[in-house]
């Protein structure tokens, strides 16, 4: 595995684990919170005024992907829960 791929994979896994832990342990954490963070990550990604470099670009891409995946899973779980509660 190339080092850039390793940075991406490790970052993705760590961010997902952190988001999942926060959802489990913080009753005030909402999907809107995760979506707000994702919005700011998109803005940050577009502002590469500091010339982040290859490593930070991979980490930023992975962080965004983790948030997108986490939000999609949360939405699917909410939809499934709603379907089960419908008569």
Describe the 3D structure:
82% of the residues lie in helices and 0% in strands. By secondary structure, the chain is an all-alpha fold. The chain has one domain (3-85). Helix 1 packs parallel to helix 3 and helix 2 (31-46) packs antiparallel against helix 3.
Strand content: under 5%
Gap between N and C termini, in Å? 49 Å
Percent helix: over 70%
Distinct helical segment count: 3
Question: What is the helix/strand order?
Answer: HHH
Query: Using only CA atoms, what is the Rg?
Result: 15 Å
Computed structural class = mainly alpha
Dominant shape: elongated
Which stretches of 5+ consecutive residues score pLDDT under 50?
A: none
Number of domains: 1
Sheet of most strands:
none
How many strand units?
A: 0
Average pLDDT: 89
List key phrases describing it.
elongated; mainly alpha; single chain; about 90 residues
Question: What's this entry about, in short?
Answer:
This protein has three helices and no strands.
Present the secondary structure layout:
Layout: H1 3-25, H2 31-46, H3 54-85
